[in-house]
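Thread: assembly with ligand

MN 10:42: here's the input set. Chains plus the small molecule as SMILES. Want everything predicted jointly, not piecewise.
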Amino acid sequence: MKVGAWSEEKHVALSRYIDSARKARAKWGYASFIDLFAGPGRVLNRDSKIISDGGVLSAWRMSQQGGAPFNEIFIGDVDTESVFACEKRLVAAGASVRTLVGSAAKTVDEVLAALPKGLHFAFLDPFSIEHLDFEIIRKLSSRSNIDILIHFSVMDVQRNIGGDFKLSSSRLDAAAPGWRANLNLDGVPKHEQVNAYLQYWESLVSNLTTMQVAQNKPLFVNMNRGPLYRLIHLSRHPLAQKLWNTAAMPSSPQQLLPGF
Ligand SMILES: C[S@@+](CC[C@H](N)C(=O)[O-])C[C@H]1O[C@@H](n2cnc3c(N)ncnc32)[C@H](O)[C@@H]1O
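BT 11:07: finished. Tokens for the full assembly:
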């Protein structure tokens, strides 16, 4: 999978968090990692041509180092070839893997039906916000001991929000149902419109999942400093929030401080 440099920054933040949550994982008899948009498990930096691990492979290897590896990894993707390539790579790296083919909106049910009691971590990393159906988050949140890391495409929202606001349906509806009825964007500048949408999405998180959004929501930008996405962490445990807030500190100029 060809990606920009900003994808590696995402994997760095993810791996740091997996590393810092090691002690918490060790206290449980079972810990899972769930990636419903797994991709092939490897990425090619389209500029440097360097090939590296994708999100789930990075997370698995980090969990293995120093103990407390994930007991099971659930991967899903609509692309059959990608998800089986990912499975092969994870198994070769020593992971115990359960593989599902299909849209995340469907595989989430299969994962939840198969998930034992334990500590769970879900990584939701779709290409576009259109696939970040809020139902996926709501369903995952039914597990009390889960935290969720979400790739939230600011760029998609920014591109579509103005044009879609007055339409009868929008690419932004699945991620934040009801946004058009609940936001008044008339006269609101474009960058503030994105923040208004995000705030509305956060209100759905508090009202429908009882999970908390961590304070640190790092914004990743492209070469021209154009906003791409935020990484948003949801949990119920103050320790998980604290660990994420530290893991998500910017490690390069590619990533800007929260609040940009
Ligand atoms: C951004 S890539 C995943 C990258 C991967 N998480 C990583 O860090 O290496 C998004 C993946 O989602 C898959 N995809 C697109 N729409 C989907 C959907 N509705 N449900 C599940 N997977 C989907 C694509 O085939 C693609 O492999």
